[in-house]
Write a structure and sequence with these properties.
homodimer; alpha+beta; 4 helices; seven-stranded mixed sheet; 164 residues
Chain lengths: 164, 164
């Protein structure tokens, strides 16, 4: 049974383990695959950020963050980022966190969510977010250096939360 | 005669004066118009950032920054931001700094420059950057809260520096 809750101080080890595993592959995030634990946690857990963890049978299997994408006059648009532990991929953890994120963003009165850097070769994430109503609103040509494919495009994705 | 050079420690007062004047109008940057000097300078002058000033007859009339827009695997794309002192607008300071920036970005081996947040109502900046070869590669719907016009769109602009 999957549960999602705000991260606690004691979750740092588990968050770092997931972060490290995800960026080590170097195919979805721009972070240095050899980023330090300190720098990783400083990015993921900040005063302007809400950090969540997903647990399955008490074990942390994913984490996501939600924060304003810009300061004051752009702070009505949220940014979010998701990481799932390698083993249980395709287990619904990413989808469950994304749906939780949409709900949290609405609760916190954000008017939209923006992803700034979706690597175009990350097809499973793209498919999931398009299913959840995100549109590709921009393409950054060759903005990501993929370890196998070289320079590949990056998408900016956006989903309004306003009633239409 | 306009000169552009790297900012020095002693330029902080002048940079803050320009920053403060530019964000006070609240129509081009997302920063809180009442941002503190400390927060402003912490954004504009950072260890990963090159900061420049433009001087006219020894007086600082503009400032810009250049830095990687993403960490490691996206660090070949630069980000830049420009601020011109209110008085000499339309005096060519913005254009001169933009051209200097393109030259510096090439010198530093960046492969492209990206602007993350160009307010769609900022027509003079849009015109200038389009003249300098930047394209609008994305549109963020209603992502900026304009003091007079309400929620307005924001553009992402991009210019490759690779030889084609």
């Amino acid at each position: 049974m999957l549960k999602i809750r705000p991260a606690a101080e004691t979750d740092c080890d588990a968050i770092w383990n997931i972060f490290h595993a995800v960026v080590a592959s170097g195919d979805t995030y721009a972070f240095d695959p050899h980023i330090s634990r300190e720098d990783a946690l400083a990015y993921w857990i900040r005063s302007d950020t809400r950090t969540y963890v997903a647990t399955k049978n008490g074990k942390i299997v994913g984490t996501y963050l939600l924060r304003p994408n810009q300061p004051a006059l752009g702070s009505h648009v949220a940014n979010a980022a998701f990481m799932v532990a390698p083993t249980p991929r395709r287990s619904g953890v990413g989808r469950a966190m994304s749906e939780h994120c949409l709900s949290e963003a609405r609760r916190l009165a954000f008017r939209a969510i923006q992803f700034n850097f979706v690597v175009s070769t990350n097809e499973s994430a793209l498919r999931l977010w398009q299913q959840l109503g995100f549109d590709i609103v921009g393409t950054l040509p060759r903005a990501f250096r993929h370890p196998e494919r070289g320079y590949v495009d990056v998408y900016i994705m956006f989903r309004s939360l306003e009633e239409s």
